[in-house]
Amino acid sequence: MKDRLNEKQSQFIGEETAFRSAVLIPLVQVNGEWHILFEVRAFTMRKQPGDISFPGGKIDLTDPTPLAAALRETHEELGVNPETVTVIEELSPYIASPTFVIYPFVAVIDYNEIIPNYNKEEVEEVFTIPLKWLLNYEPYMHLVSVQPTPASDFPFEKIVNGADYEWGTRAIEEWFYDFEDYTIWGITARILKHFIECVE
């Protein structure tokens, strides 16, 4: 038992069956200053059209690692050759729920390689925010209450208090960054906030 438990385990229970995705936090040089690059998702996208995000997406079965997925997606979305990307560090995974996890990576990419090549079917536009501005900005937060709702076939007869069981409501912190006409929020803001705190 001890030998088996000493073997490499997943980072959290349920990782093997979770929906897994990976993103790149792209550092770019703009006029000699470090910026972070963001995408605005195309308005024709089925999921989250118009939202601001980092390049990245679902980890496919053919991706050997989360980093490989992040580099592949960055190439598909922004036209950046993975061989020209300088990966700096992997951040802690963001576990949105036991069934959804995101692996973020910080990397330096060539801004000039992006501009003419990004995929207009997936990306509406790209923009950058100076890292110095982000380090001095105070994001603001709003709470969102989440109430579990069991499905109609939930076996209430097997738990104490049955249908009268008191499910705990929890609050999710939603952070917001306002830069010019852009508002970054949701998972992108949460990962960005973690990155900025690490840099600080």
Automatic annotation (TrEMBL):
This is Coenzyme A pyrophosphatase. PROSITE patterns: NUDIX. It comes from Sporosarcina ureilytica. Pfam families: NUDIX (PF00293). GO terms for molecular function: coenzyme A diphosphatase activity; metal ion binding. InterPro entries: CoAse, NUDIX_hydrolase-like_dom_sf, NUDIX_hydrolase_dom. The lineage of its organism: Bacteria, Bacillati, Bacillota, Bacilli, Bacillales. Its cofactor is Mg(2+); Mn(2+). It comes from the Bacteria. Residues 18-156 form the Nudix hydrolase domain. Keywords: Hydrolase, Magnesium, Manganese, Metal-binding.
